[in-house]
Amino acid sequence: MIFRGLQKTTLVDYPGLVACTLFVDKCNFRCPFCQNATLVLEEEKNVISEREVLEFLNKRKKVLQGICITGGEPTLHTELKEFLPKVKELGYKIKLDTNGSRPDFVRELIDSKLIDYVAMDIKAPLEKYGLAAGVKVNKEAIKESISLLLEGRIDYEFRTTVVPTIIELEDMPKIGELIKGAKAYYLQQFVNTVPLLDPEFEKIMPYSKETLQKMAEMVKPYVKKVGIRA
Ligand code: SF4
Questions:
Q1: Average pLDDT of the residues of the chain
Q2: Cα(92)–Cα(117) distance, integer angstroms
C-alpha cells in the first residue's frame, strides 16, 4: 500500500487521542472546496511505503494511540484490508475518514473490527449533493452509510464543511433529518486561504462565527451533540 503523506502527530484529528494522520490519494468526488487537490487529482508525487509507515508506527507506539486514515477517499483503497491488521497488531486505534460513497467497504471494515472510529462527511442535504460533491452522487449509498453509522456499532461523527453558496441556513433542518439521532455532528468552517480544487471558491468569504452558531442551534434538536470546528 502506498501513502502520499504522513502528519506525524495530531491532537485534533482523532477525538480524545494523540494520533498521526496518513493520507492516501484518489477520490470519486470533486468537491470544489476540497483542500487536497493534488491527492484527489492523483498529482501528488510523494510516496511513503507501507514498510516506512509500519516502522514509524512501531517506533512511536509508546507516544501515539491512534492513526487517522484520510485522503482523498480511503475507501477506494481495498488494500486497506491487508494494511490495517498490521496496524492493529501494533495496538493502535484506527479512525477512517470517508465521504460515505462506499458503505459496503466501511461495513466490511467494521465487521472485521479493523476500524474504531468513522468520520463521515455530510456534504449537503441530499438534493444538493451533486452541487457540493461536484459529481453525480449515488444518494442511496450516502443514506446507507448514514444508517450504518447510526446502528452505533462503532464510534462515529458526521461533519459538514459549511461553504457559502452551497450550504445555507435553511439546509440545517434537512441535514438534521438526514442524520436524526446521531451522537455527534460538527460544522466545519470553510477555509479559502489554501489552494482549492476549484480556484473560484478561493474568492468566497467564509460565514461568520455567529452564522455558524445559528446553524448549530438549528441542528441541535435532531442530534445528541453539535460542535463547531472553526
Ligand atoms: S473534500 Fe471532496 S473531493 Fe476532497 S477528498 Fe473529500 S470527498 Fe474527495
A1: 97
A2: 12
Question: For residue 32, how far is its CA from the centre of ligand 1 (angstroms)?
Answer: 8
Q: Which atom of ligand 1 is nearest to the CA of 27?
A: 8
Q: Find the mean pLDDT for residues 20-48.
A: 97
Beta bridge pairs of residue 119: 97, 157
Cβ-in-10-Å burial (0-12, 13-18, 19+) of 133 comes to: buried
- What is the per-residue pLDDT across 63-113, written as a single tens digit (0 to 9) for each? 999 999 999 999 999 999 999 999 999 999 999 999 999 999 999 999 999
- Torsion-angle region of residue 134: left (phi > 0), alpha (psi -120 to 50) or beta? left
Identify the residues whose C-beta falls under 6 Å from ligand 1.
27, 29-31, 34, 36, 40, 71-73, 99
Question: Which region holds residue 146: left if phi is over 0, alpha if psi is between -120 and 50, else beta?
Answer: alpha
Domains of the chain: 2-165 (3.20.20.70)
Best probe residue, ligand 1, of 26, 29, 75 (max atoms within 8 Å of C-beta): 29
- pTM exceeding 0.85: yes
In this structure, are strands 155-162 and 185-189 parallel, antiparallel, or unpaired?
parallel
Among 40, 69, 188, 196, the mutation site with the greatest number of ligand 1 atoms within 8 A of its Cβ is 40
Tens digit of each residue's pLDDT (9 = 90 or more) over 4-32 = 999 999 999 999 999 999 999 999 999 99
Cα 218 from Cα 174, distance rounded (Å) = 10
